[in-house]
Amino acid sequence: MIDLTARQVEILNIVQKHAPITGDQIAEMLNLSKATIRTDLSKLGILNYIDAKPKVGYFVGKRGTPNREEKFRLMQMKVGDLHGVPVIVRETTTIQEAVVALFLENVSNLIVTDEEGNLAGVASRKDLLKVTLGNPNAATIPVSLVMTRQANVVTVSPEDTVLEAARKIIARQIDSLPVVVPSNSDKPGEHWKVVGRITKTNIIKMLLDMVAED
């Protein structure tokens, strides 16, 4: 919408939310006179962002509808519709085995689980690099000693929206999130079963696919 002014974008948003709506009603919501927004309404109509019917009012035009539909579709998409298969190692996995898994799977981190398959933590490339540099005995150290523990791991559930997952990824400056559901573990405390992994790549690919459909 680079060809629209801030007021024209505001008018379009009003029409998208309240259509059909009259010019007088739009002007009232903006605290302006109808004469003041007449040029804006005309431009939006010429560009097909809005359309009008006599005695009915303004409604979303052909150019305005796809944006609204795509935004709604994006807001409603769930993590469970998008996440990939998690790359998992056990707490007892050695650093050497973890490094091999990291590079074979071409991922930025590994999800670590306990013997029951519950989330125990996450081991990143940085975690593994820090412990291996200058440490000839690092290869046999269990990954549980260097991972970020479960209490400090940011997760999402399959029912969370993709937008919420993206916000967490950006806020924490990380590449991916474990997707978890409550575990039936008999152990005390909160436990989570890992069911997937959502990444920046998943989200970017989804956006590219949505653009390609237009």
TrEMBL record:
Keyword vocabulary terms for this entry: CBS domain, Kinase, Repeat, Transferase
Entry's Gene Ontology molecular function annotations: kinase activity
InterPro entries: CBS_dom (IPR000644), CBS_dom_sf (IPR046342), CBS_domain-containing (IPR051462), HTH_11 (IPR013196), WH-like_DNA-bd_sf (IPR036388), WH_DNA-bd_sf (IPR036390)
Residues covered by the CBS domain: 82-140, 147-213
SMART domains referenced in this protein's UniProt entry, alphabetically: CBS (SM00116)
PROSITE patterns: CBS
Membrane-spanning intervals of the chain: none
CDD domains per UniProt: CBS_pair_CcpN (cd04617)
This protein's name: Histidine kinase
